[in-house]
Amino acid sequence: MMAAKPTVRATTASGDVFTKGKNYASIQDAVKAGMIGASAPFPEGLDILGFCNGIDGASLQRYREAELTHGRVSMLATVGFLVGEQVEGSSFLFDSQVTGPAVNHFQQVPTPFWFAIGTVIALAESTRVQAGWQDPGQSDKLFLLKDGYTPGDLNFDPLGLGAGKSAEELDVLRLKELNNGRIAMVAISGMIAQELVDGLNLLPADIALELGNGDLQAMQKTCAGMVDEAACAKAFEAALEAGQTVAQAAAAGAAM
Length: 256
Description:
Layout: E1 23-24, H1 27-32, E2 55-56, H2 57-87, H3 111-132, H4 167-198, H5 202-211, H6 215-223, H7 229-241, H8 246-254
């Protein structure tokens, strides 16, 4: 069956929800007022911890900005984890110095990379702050977003996905971004937890777990902590898929 098309409530403009001075008793009230973000199976919104109980428009605006930002970072992180582990050890990346689970990659990169990534983050954050945040020296409270600012709208659309779209179509795209970001936040948390627990790359560990018969534990015992852990895990995985025993797979992995 085809997935149902996301629907957005046709009420007031979503930006009006974040008007300072407006108050909402719950997430349901904010959704009824036109806030984007609620979708099946929770069409009225979901707020288990009650963050939106008795919330004002300015705080709701800041929470949505935080949710979008964390979702975007998490989407990049999930892709980075999977891609990074597949290309690790390649000569064109840091002279093959970065290996092992992605959770340990960042601390292995050369020092100049830290300065480069720090500069990129600083530029991105300064652009975001200038676009959406009020000058703390000119506002009566700290951590306030600008009036009329739509959370996440940085006028950055290099692929032109929003070009020529109606307001309703743009709202559907915003809902899709929110939902993908939410899934990504859960996914990257699971990826980090898994690698911290078993000390193995994601895909080889998942394949070994699917094969069962203690293969994951055997792979972990053989490969975790090795200098070229990724190559060991891949050799172990290949041996198992070729029908060899766990002992033969362990020998193949240890020989890498």
